[in-house]
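Sample pair:
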Amino acid sequence: MLTSRAYLLPSVPTMLIDEQRGDYTEMIEAVTRVGESLAAEGPEAIVAVSSRWTSAGPFLADDAREHKSVIDLPGFAVEPRYDCPGQPTIARALVEAANKAGVRAATGRRGMDTGLSVPLHFLVRGHDVPVVPLSLGEGSREEHRAWGEAIRLALHARSERIAFVVGGALAFNQHAFNLKRELVEAIDLDDAVLGAIRAGRWSALAELSPEMIERAWPDAGLRHLEVLRGFLLGDLAGRVLEHERSPGIGTALIEFPLEVATGA
């Protein structure tokens, strides 16, 4: 069974720098509050999609018993660490369910990259809840939605209480960030994506202008949002709990209440 909420979580390593400086930003406080609410539901595992893990073949589920941290964004001058237990049984069940649904999936090994290590540092500080990292692919929006739907139906059928989260950014132009250069296109992209999700108009993600995309560099081409869209089993509106901007980069914490899935 699933917990009562799914989340899009922010994943920018500067959140850790802010914390180290004692600057508990509104975003850090918001993710921490969500973590407290989640802990009250007693999740036995977290299934987590990372925008920083892209498979060149089938979608992948990490079935390791223990996950080590992956330092994949060295340009931020911080090394996020989130070593934690895994849950091989759930990972393999997700792969089996996806393949039965016609979605190409397999087990693989990645560990905890910054798409997950940063937000989970604030969400589950004890590192004690098992995590199943999941990848994106290089395929179409439709394929990513099918992956998300297969995940939802498989988790709904299980007896464990499981949380589902997606870690990633919105605009993610790291070059502009390093130069401290504000980008109008990054701001516009964030506003367009948040407006679409608030309204439940997810189809607007495919309507973003090529010029905006070329300049804003949306994280993972926003494919992580398509997985989330599929997981929700419909174009449901999300509640934006917090949004944070840096030059060239935008992150958001968005909450989605979950109804009982049908067709499991």
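The first helix runs from residue 14 to 20.
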